[in-house]
Give the backbone structure.
Amino acid sequence: MKEKILVFDTTLRDGEQSPGASLNVQEKVEIARQLEKLGVDIIEAGFPASSPLQFEAVERVSAESGAVVAALSRAVEGDITSAWKALQHARKPRIHTFISTSDIHILGKFAADRYGRTLEEKRRTILKMAVDAVAFAKTLAPDIEFSAEDAGRTDPGYLAEIVEAVIAAGATTVNIPDTTGYTWPSEFGRKIADLRSRVGNIDQAVISVHCHNDLGLAVANTLSALENGARQAECSVNGIGERAGNASLEEIVMALKVRSDLHNFETGVTTEEIFKTSRMVSSFTGIIVQPNKAIVGENAFSHESGIHQDGMLKNRQTYEVMTPESVGVPKTSIVLGRHSGKHGLKARLESLGYALADGDLESVYRRFMEIADKKKEVYDDDLRFLMGDELSSPSS
Ligand code: KIV
Ligand code: ZN
């Protein structure tokens, strides 16, 4: 029996916090519909207290979604009330409340006159605010997530104390964010294992992780946390989010699927919907997907070098660890360019309807290389032109 990993998608909340991204309400509703088709378990629809547009988006997504819909709030009653109001029509509402717990954040963000003069005083205030927020949210909804912002840099003893207290106050999910993308995979995995050993009531809540990608380690950190007891992965489509972004949904899901030999996990994601979702998010947010992005980049299933093309023509598994169809990409593309070999060229010409006699390939390849040296990619129209030219040339 496989263990289910809950996929918590934050494209509409943290993802939309990407510099340059902005989504209107209708676009958010359409992305939420697609996320549901994709099969994510939780859709974080926004941060209702932060703006009227965010409030409306959470309301609209709530009204039509069958998935759990989460709304973010700071650990203060006003935000929590606003989140709850926006979630009124959700079939499965979740209030997600957060507060910073690392010393860097506590000392840097919370003023002495309101929160205490010393670090110790401030820590006590934060602990009380976290517990009060969760207890208040629990009077409104049964499904409560608490996030310890900057948990990645939080003192382990203090983190355990807060996590135990918020679970006792009613949190059903405790999220351990690596807010600044600072941790290292084995270190972050140990952090989760350590938390489980310190917190007596940890089994009463799902452990979630939310990793940012400042050092390019968000997906690795997430996988390491799953190996150490986390059962919810927070992520976004195309990895968009604050600064360098969040852990990418498609990379986590496909890593779990392709390397199922290494663990006993499964997600509920319909992977064939990944590419369509990626393109929708890119076009609505205006954030392009880098060509070499794993799983959904333009080049993720393209092969250019002659050796690779030759291998692919013999057996796709030589250079592909998953099929493009498995993530909804129509097909592998053999890109013809200056690194391509004769086999790749011959196969493409055949697919275009040109059958070459053995003796002709050499001269066609020579002409092809002249074109390839001048261009980044040789397109089908270039080949048609080349073949027309070849056939009419007196020497051919
Ligand atoms: O990165 C972070 O810590 C967050 C929290 C609000 C969950 O986005
Ligand atoms: Zn975040």
Notes: The pocket of 3-methyl-2-oxobutanoic acid (ligand 1) is lined by residues 14, 98, 147, 149, 175, 177, 179, 210, 212 (CB under 6 Å). The chain is about 45% helix and 15% strand. The longest helix spans residues 119-138.
